[in-house]
Structure to design on (586 residues):
């Protein structure tokens, strides 16, 4: 615990320019990663009336169930993209992701 | 050996292994408050994954998901969507929560509110709403243990006996090893859950219909409306689906135990990577759904949908497999019950009792009080479960809508400088009151939209409006320009 606080405080003294320009609040996520996160929300939530039906069956599953299963597997890909965006941003700031 | 003996032996073996793992999980570490509640903030990706998975897959998922698929049909699909999207939300929220937690030594959700908003009454309110929401959840887990073990053991072990044994064992490992116990018992539980889900989800359709595809074809033919929304319910349509998925995915990590799990992680990136892979574990639930949908045609007309899955399993599976289902079911209830007890007891001792009644208590005394509270809460949950009423599930849903009202305070507390304490306080009170009123007066869903979601919208509007007219939190007296600022030397 103490180590973390000390290092952080020293960094603040040494590199004032690299501190968030919005001192106070925690750094907000970037627009890019929020956009990637919006994809699964749109696919699994907002668009429900477009895919909530039985036909055509997907691999023997009703269309709505098949669609959701498909997106359970696609959403980690979106979030992996978001992670890449965030990690690059943190590295640019000189931190450890 | 008779089937009942085989069954019973497997159940007892599994529970014994689980409990031993739990008791030994602490190792030789000194179990101070920091170790007990957040495991010294040292969990890597695998343990965080197991802890969080252990918390998600409760008996509500096990019996409830199949029961809903059986009795309601289509609307139950919301579970798959909300769990996946809750992890998407957690990708952003949890690392930020972890970051401030690490800086300021936060161990509980109530600590977060106390430090961010500098008001011990707000922190105590958060505490009370959290504990009150836990009680029905804990009771539900214990009732679940009773049902699963008694059905799977051919009624050799009665419900009360099963529940009592479960409470004694889980109180013991929580006291001994804290959150480490929960994570390590989850290892045993999750492996078994995957086996059980696969064998039921594939086995039952295969046995009665010749395959999953054939089962859905038969169901679509016999009950064409069961598989889409609103299914067998009168009013759970698309508006309900969207509002409920939003409510539950935003609210999921507002449960104090889920929120607190963030602090066990070694780094913020552990939580991000965890959020990426967690949705894949939701796939095991899909198999529970398969089994639930299959029972619609196999055993139509059961009054209690929650028993559908186990009734069919008892009629179709060999005793040893039934024993594994029983043992896994018991652990599935014990792991979440353990983390509820741990979280509720810490909240009570550290965030309610100490700040309001005994400010001079040391961390060591808080840890002792928390352990005593674990025993008291365990016994309370057990008593309630033994003399349970049937309104339990509706109480749980009220609890869910209640904890979700923390969301504006957490989100704006993290990312906004402008949000104020009176704003969050008023929003929380109005949000919780609205949700409780609408749900207990049977106005959920209201105009086809989830009542908890309406309460959350109201909450957000009030926080915004009140914050605009009140001065922002100032922390000048403690030498920081903002609560999240590091203390300057």
């Amino acid at each position: 615990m103490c180590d973390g606080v000390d290092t952080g405080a020293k960094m603040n003294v040494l590199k004032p320019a690299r501190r968030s320009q919005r001192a106070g609040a925690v750094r907000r996520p970037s627009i890019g990663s929020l956009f990637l996160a919006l994809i699964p929300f749109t696919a699994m939530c907002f668009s429900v009336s477009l895919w909530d039906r039985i036909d055509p069956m997907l691999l023997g599953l009703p269309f709505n169930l098949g669609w959701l299963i498909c997106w359970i597997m696609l959403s980690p890909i979106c979030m992996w993209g978001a992670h890449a965006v965030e990690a690059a941003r943190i590295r640019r700031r000189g931190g450890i992701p | 050996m008779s089937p009942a003996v085989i069954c019973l032996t497997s159940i007892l073996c599994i529970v014994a292994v689980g409990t031993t793992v739990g008791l030994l999980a602490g190792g030789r570490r000194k179990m101070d408050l920091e170790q007990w509640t957040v495991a010294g903030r040292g969990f890597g990706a695998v343990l965080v994954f197991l802890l969080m998975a252990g918390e998600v897959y409760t008996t509500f998922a096990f019996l409830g998901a199949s029961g809903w698929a059986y009795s309601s049909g289509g609307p139950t699909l919301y579970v798959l969507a909300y769990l996946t999207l809750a992890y998407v939300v957690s990708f952003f929220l949890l690392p930020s929560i972890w970051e401030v937690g690490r800086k300021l030594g936060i161990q509980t959700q109530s600590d977060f509110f106390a430090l961010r908003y500098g008001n011990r009454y707000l922190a105590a309110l958060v505490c009370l709403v959290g504990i009150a929401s836990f009680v029905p959840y804990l009771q539900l887990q214990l009732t679940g243990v009773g049902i699963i073990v008694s059905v799977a053991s051919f009624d050799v072990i009665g419900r009360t006996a099963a529940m009592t044994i479960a409470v004694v064992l889980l109180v013991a490992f929580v006291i001994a090893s804290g959150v480490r116990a929960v994570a390590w018992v989850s290892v045993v539980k999750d492996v078994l859950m995957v086996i059980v889900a696969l064998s039921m989800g594939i086995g039952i359709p295969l046995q009665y219909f010749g395959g999953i595809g054939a089962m859905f074809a038969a169901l679509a033919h016999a009950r064409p409306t069961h598989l889409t929304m609103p299914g067998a319910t009168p009013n759970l349509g698309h508006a309900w689906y969207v509002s409920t998925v939003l409510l539950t995915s935003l609210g999921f990590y507002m449960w104090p135990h889920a929120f607190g799990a963030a602090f066990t992680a070694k780094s913020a990136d552990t939580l991000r990577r965890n959020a990426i892979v967690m949705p894949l574990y939701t796939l095991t639930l899909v198999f529970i759904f398969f089994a639930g949908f299959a029972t619609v045609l196999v055993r139509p007309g059961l009054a209690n949908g929650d028993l559908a899955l186990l009734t069919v399993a008892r009629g179709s599976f060999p005793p040893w497999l039934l024993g594994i289902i029983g043992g896994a079911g018991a652990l599935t209830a014990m792991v979440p019950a353990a983390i509820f007890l741990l979280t509720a007891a810490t909240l009570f001792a550290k965030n309610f009792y100490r700040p309001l009644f005994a400010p001079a208590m040391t961390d060591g005394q808080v840890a002792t009080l928390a352990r005593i509270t674990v025993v008291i809460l365990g016994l309370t949950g057990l008593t309630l479960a033994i003399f349970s009423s049937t309104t339990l599930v509706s109480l749980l849903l009220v609890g869910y809508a209640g904890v979700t009202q923390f969301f504006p305070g957490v989100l704006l507390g993290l990312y906004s400088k402008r949000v104020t304490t009176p704003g969050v306080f008023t929003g929380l009170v109005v949000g919780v009151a609205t949700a409780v009123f609408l749900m207990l007066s049977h106005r959920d869903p209201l105009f086809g939209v989830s009542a908890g979601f309406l309460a959350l919208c109201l909450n957000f509007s009030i926080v915004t409006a009140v914050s605009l007219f009140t001065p922002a939190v100032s922390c000048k007296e403690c030498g920081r320009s903002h609560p999240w600022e590091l203390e300057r030397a």
